Amino acid sequence: MHLYYFIHLTGRDSGNSGIQRVVRNLGTALQSIPSITLLPVRWNQELQAVVHAEEPFRERIKLFNGPRFNASESDGLPIHLDKIKNAQLLMPEVPLFQSPDPRYPFVHLPFVIGYLHSHNIKITNIFHDIMPLSHFGEEFSEYPQSLKFFIYANALSNVDNVISVSKYSEQCLTSWFGRCGIPYSSKRILQYILLPEEMIGVECRKFIGTNLSNGGTIEFCMWGSLYPHKNQVAVLEAFTSLCELRLDLNLKLHVFGNINNQVVAKVQRLVRFSNGNIIYHGFVDDKKMADIIRRCRATLFVSLAEGYGLPLAESLWLGKPCLTSNIPPMTEIAAGGGCLLVDPENIKDIITGLERLAIDDNLIAKLNAEIAVRRYRTWSDYANEIVDAIRNCKDCQEDMQYTYLPTRRLSDFVETLAISPTDLSIHSVFKDSAFPILRNGRIFFDSEDYIWCEENVISYGPYISLKKGIYECFIIGELKGDVILRATAEYGSVVFGEAIISDLSTRFRFNVSKSIDKFEILIIRSNETKTLRVDMIELDRYST
């Protein structure tokens, strides 16, 4: 299969943060698939066409283990002139961002879609996030960048195949579609394929159990671009507070990545007055970064909002425990183990997490043990899944599948909590049977397998703390028949409500009048439960 690969931005970028790493790593993995002919392309504003990428793009894309492309006689020519039957385009980038090279400005996605569809070329988009719209409330602003996101997000409803980088990212997009009244669209597919943990060229679990002391120094590290929503300033402030509280500890924090202008003054101040405890490295080569990571006790990634969270995944691949946020999509990655979760908006919680990682050897041993048995996915795995998704999209016989959600009042919405099936307890009757319910991190229940069984409670837990608020709970997965959800606390002595669910788009709503501990959601089968698959349980909290 001939696959056009859109590198308009990364092909002119010498950096390698987030999206650029995805573009380069995925491109390299796709090139290793014998059945795929990968062709680099970009957008030509003058021609209003997708064209074959020229040498400057090929040279820049191969940095950081990126794909290597040969010169072609078609360089700079529109791709429809190729007349390749069944060719498709894969766009792993977010085209609305400004290229580092001013000669190649940002691209409005509708023009790309229009060009491709006019020449019967289908497009698959790797969807990362629309955080300015889904998290930052910028849909009400007149900022040019916000308007670009608005155009981009709505245009995604006309993409043939949208593949989001996490389940949470998919939910943000479908919620946006719901808010905008974008209807179900025939011949469109929407799905999620979680990004892999692999760092190309680095051995899996390479640094597990290594936190070599240097004169009693306890070291941490944090990498990725520094932005307000990524919350690194709060982590630096928490680390500074811990250094002041624990003068008996020799603490060091290594920071890597580009600093956004919105936080550069705060970061510089914290580094300057840290007495050398915070070391900012900027961009460094892989060897130097690896040497520092090897020495570190754990990594830090306590973001407020992400489409995925590559630094967290890469930390686990390297074999390093990570302090991370207790919100999705970080919880999707953390579900496999190796992480200590904290509230990213609670500075005291971050300080406590840092201190535990610094002094609690038993905790570090536990997290390392979880990392040792964790199942990891590679970029090769991911590339093959992407190719399968593109091939399945060839005939576009499916509808765009998403839960149409009503518009929410942003002032009421507070937070989302994602509960993985691995966080739940499975009733022993089902757990120990010949047909185990929990498989590959999901719950699979088929009533035909349990005709003999009289137990109705499938799962319970996860015994977490909830804040005061109104909650909406729903299952992400598949259901035939109906199922009962019951919200309780204190091992069932407090019941907040119960609902019979026959459609997984239904939200089970209940009120928590004060902060509680040991909260659990019981999944209970009824006489009408035929089959149930649980990928995740989502809890949305509202203030009123």
From TrEMBL:
Alphabetical list of InterPro entries matching this protein: Glyco_trans_1
Pfam families, per the entry: Glycos_transf_1
Domain Glycosyl transferase family: 211-367
Single GO MF annotation: glycosyltransferase activity
Keyword tags: Transferase
Identification of the protein by name: Glycosyltransferase family 1 protein
Species, as recorded: Komagataeibacter melaceti
